[in-house]
Amino acid sequence: MPFLFEDYCLDANRRELKRGSELIPVGPKLFDLLLFLVQNREQVVTRDDLLKAVWDGRIVSESTLTSHVNAVRKAIGDTGKEQRLIRTISRRGLRFVGKIIEEEMPARALVTDPGADPGVQHVRAFEVGAPAETRDAASVLAAEAESPPPLPDRPSIAVLPFQNMSGDVEQEYFADGMAEDIITALSRFKAPFVIARNSSFTYKARAVDVKQVGRELGVRYVLEGSVRKAANRVRITGQLVDAATGAHIWADRFDGELGDIFDLQDQVTESVVGAIAPAVEKAEIERAKRKPTASLDAYALYLRGLARLHQFGNRQANDEALRLFNSAIELDPEFATAYGRAASCYLSARINGWIPDTANAIAEVKKLTERAVELGKDDAIALCAGGNALAFVVGDVGVGAGLVDRALALNSNLAEAWHFGGWVKIWLGEPESAIERFARAIRLSPLDPWLMGMRAGTAYAHFFLDRYDEAASWATMALQCSPDYRPGLRIAAASNAMAGRPEQAHKAVARLRELSPTLRLSNLKDVLGPYRRAEDVARYEEGLRQAGLPE
């Protein structure tokens, strides 16, 4: 039953808040909070009432509760000063004081249209004896019920059944299993809204128009694919399409032996999911950039922040990323991933030597990571981003490593978690394991925005295994991605020096000192990770000393 107040409509069934025809984005907790206040508007709602109804009795801080109330007020055009709709009753609680009109669904009669095709019933909804405006409203509601679902505010994907191009019935099971595995793997990502198998498989064995699929299922992206067998080999193709425009976002093909069909299925699933997750994120970032500033929701702010965070080495962009993530949190205090990304901004600042107040940064990262973990117990990005920042900025490598491992357990196809996990292993003194994790990250996302970090991490791991030539080679590849990436320049200098190539080492240090004029061996610890093994730090310092970094 929708509740109408001023020019707002709060629909409990659809879980939507609208102002006129505009859908206002609110997080689940904010919606529950507003709905509870509206439903209990005849009485003052206490703090305990809210905790029981909205937070299932879980204890939350006063600041969390206040931020949620402020966010709800903001969503409905109210303020703590004005209190036009939500009033604070001193020492008692809150009360919704706006005038509510409850919009009831009218009784309906079913009228068969005699001109309709046989077997197709056309339905008109009306209330017997009701005025014309009531009947019109009922007709609108009926029409809305039949209209396509609206696009969610997050990226939305439908994976269609893969076509069996082999003419072999046995391959039908393989093709279906391929699509089902991809649906399952994509569902582990927190951001995308993934259509369930039962809905997307209604298009099996049908010639489909991707744009029509997008409209009918309410999705922005559609993944389609095919399986073709020849002798003992199989070729699998996949393409990701923007359902609104028909534009191709990503396409690839995979060839393999049919010897171990399940192993092949796992490999292709990993490759497809690893590729399309960042492809969707990139497309969503571009979409958020084009969105008018006045209509930005929390997710759009988050995406804009992510685009700035990817400009690694740019201090102004990093500061802007932090501001955007904080704005997203203000709009949606339950946005776990935004807390993790905000913590990552402090990590980037420390790597580049931009933190003037280390104590403040440590306190902020602790607070952000605590919220990310509290809200994102099933959010792999929130956990790995927060864990990595906790390890690097705070120095709590044990807890940070545990959070990254939890992220990997939740989503083994998340390249970012393997990337961060590789750095954690380096700090723990396990370079062989680090190399394996970086290799998995690169395999999952070979065009990743953080590829320079994956390559540089691999260089560090080889360096600590006395493989200086391999380290220098990986450092060179890292700097191909980003020539001014400071960790890449540092390991390039150290590894070339230890490999007996002083010219390359001195060149790297010269560029490093241009970017960080105050960097010395004596303050190197300010930009280093929490290395457990003192011998690793000593070897690294010796390499940089030979490369020409002053004491």
Structure commentary:
The protein is an alpha+beta fold and 551 residues long. The protein has 4 domains: 2-102, Winged helix-like DNA-binding domain superfamily/Winged helix DNA-binding domain (Arc Repressor Mutant, subunit A, Orthogonal Bundle); 106-147, no CATH class; 156-288, ABC-type transport auxiliary lipoprotein component (Rossmann fold); 307-315 and 324-547, Tetratricopeptide repeat domain (Serine Threonine Protein Phosphatase 5, Tetratricopeptide repeat). It has 21 helices and 13 strands. Strands 8, 9, 10, 11, 12 and 13 form a 6-stranded mixed β-sheet that branches. The chain has a 5-stranded antiparallel β-sheet with strand order 4-3-2-1-7, covered by helices on one side. Strand 5 and strand 6 (93-96) form a beta hairpin. Helix 8 (261-290) packs across helix 9, helix 16 runs antiparallel to helix 17 and helix 18 (468-481) packs antiparallel against helix 19 (486-498). It is flat and about 80 Å long. The model is unreliable at 105-146 (pLDDT under 50).
How many β strands by DSSP? 13
Tell me the overall shape.
flat
CATH topology of the largest domain: Serine Threonine Protein Phosphatase 5, Tetratricopeptide repeat
CATH C-level of the largest domain:
Mainly Alpha
User: How would you characterize the largest beta sheet?
Assistant: 6 strands, mixed
